[in-house]
Structures are given as C-alpha cells and as structure tokens.
Amino acid sequence: MLDDLHAILLRNDPVDIGQHMALLISRLLEVRRLGPECWQRFRDHFADHDVCHFLRADPITGRAAGKPRGYAGDAELIDLIYFGWPGELSVDRAGAKAIYDYVHSSPSCAAVRYRREVLANRIDAIASRVDGPTIFAIAAGHLREASLSRAFRDGKVGRMIALDQDPDSLSEIARCHPVGVEILHNSVKDLLTGEVAIPPVDLIYAAGLYDYLPDAVAKRLTRVVCRQLKPGGVFLFANFTADVVDAGYMESAMDWHLILRTSAQMAQIAAACGEDYAIRHWTDAYSAIHYCEISRKD
Prior knowledge:
With 298 residues, this protein is α/β, with parallel strands linked by helices. It folds into two domains: 2-108, no CATH class; 110-296, Rossmann fold (3-Layer(aba) Sandwich). Helices cover 49% and strands 16% of the residues. The chain contains 15 helices and seven strands. The chain has helices at 2-11, 14-32, 36-47, 50-55, 59-66, 75-83, 96-104, 107-129, 145-148, 150-153, 167-176, 188-193, 215-227, 247-252, 263-270, and strands spanning 134-138, 159-164, 182-185, 201-206, 229-240, 277-283, 289-296. The longest helix is centred in the middle third of the chain and has 23 residues, at 107-129. It is globular. The model has no long low-confidence stretch (mean pLDDT 93). This is SAM-dependent methyltransferase. One of its GO terms (biological process) is methylation. Keywords: Methyltransferase, Transferase. GO terms for molecular function: methyltransferase activity.
C-alpha cells in the first residue's frame, strides 16, 4: 500500500492523491486498532518509508513532525489549519499542495476551525450578559478567536488575559493586540502551584490544553479553575475524541500524540469541579472534538 501511494504522489494528480489519502487514513486507523505494540512497530516502519517523507512536504504534516518549537501542536501549525496554504510558501515538491488540501479539509482540521468559532461565540455570549467581563485563556496560542469575537473587537471585554508558556506565541498576541490583552508568560504548573493566581473570572477556557494533560492533572486544574468562577461564570474546555478518524495519520505521519478521550472520561474530569456547578457536554458534528462547559450556579 505504501509503495503504491508513493507512486501516486509522484504523479501529482490531485484527484488520485485525494482518493488514496482517504484510503491511507482509513488503513492507518485500522492498524492503530490492532493494539499499541503492533501500532508502534508499524509507525517505526512507516517513519522510514519514502511515502512518510513525501507526506511531510505538506506544511501541516511537516511542521507537526518537525516540531520547530519543541512540540507538535504549536500556534503556527494551528494558523496553517485556520488560514490555509501560506502565500509565501512555494510548492517545492510535486503533490505537496494536494496533500495539504486534503489534510486541511480533514475532519480534525475542520473541527479545529470550528473550535475557534465556539470560543469566539462564548466570548460574545458572556459579554452580552455581563458588563465588561473578565476572560482568561489558558494555553492561549495566538488567541485567534479574539479577532472573531465581535465583543472583543468592539471593546466590550473588560479584561482579556492570555496565558501561555511559549514566548513566540505571546509575541504574536502582542503584535496583533498591542492593547486590550494582558499577557502572562507562564505554564499550567504555575497555575496549579499558585505561582500565578487566576482572578475571579466570567469566562475561562482551554482550547487544546486538555489533549496533553493526564487525568490527574486535568482534574486538578479543573478544580483550581472552577474555584475562580464568578457566580454565573463559565469554564469551557475541549478535547479530541477517542474515535477521531484522523488519529492514525496524526500519530504516524505527523508524530503528533494527543490524549484522546471518551465522553465518559470528559464527564469524570468535569466532575472534579465539585458541587454548585452545572455541567454540559457535547461533541462537534465532525465527531472529532468533545466540549465540556462548567457553569457556576448563581
């Protein structure tokens, strides 16, 4: 299968590439389901195959695998998912653009773009019922949801606080929003130890953070965050689903490993908030990302 796909990629026929990318992603998921040992052996073989090197000519796949900031899902990669093929990139390998087009339209990438809309909508919803709300983004990345939020653009957010441990991400936030955003260069550990105090907030959210947190840490962070919600305040966190169809491609071609969770596991994390909170769960239309919204009762 891999040799056949490599030959098709070399022909650079976008239709053929799209069809065989779909087949590859399906087959990768099948192998992944055979168990961790079999999956690890396959990934080792796959990483050395010419087709894997070819797939990484796609800027999304290549950046995830290359980890220029030391981790796979950096904010520059998320921008590639949000905004499309960068105009400054040349197609330096036949088929790279066709691979990118397929990956960019995949359920996981579509779900990431939808997640940005969810965050922007929550900002607007809070600002519509709270005068000058305090909003806190954990692991904020480039904070691209702010530019989608009408309330933020119209100056109706009282405080927008963005925390991230990546200084490059924070520099981009400062460039895009020289006023209107308070920047904290800190880690999740700093929140858990109390080195950074979360002020009373109307909305706090974590878009992609929980994909990397073990259960114990996720539950602890949930408790810490929920204690800081004002009456009626909301904590929103998201997590990729355990049955996301792109999981095999992400873990092999992208070398991007997330902690995928079921709805039941999301509920267990949310339950760590304790009493006096209302909890709501849902999954996006792509079956790719779970959402959990925890609201402090008035």
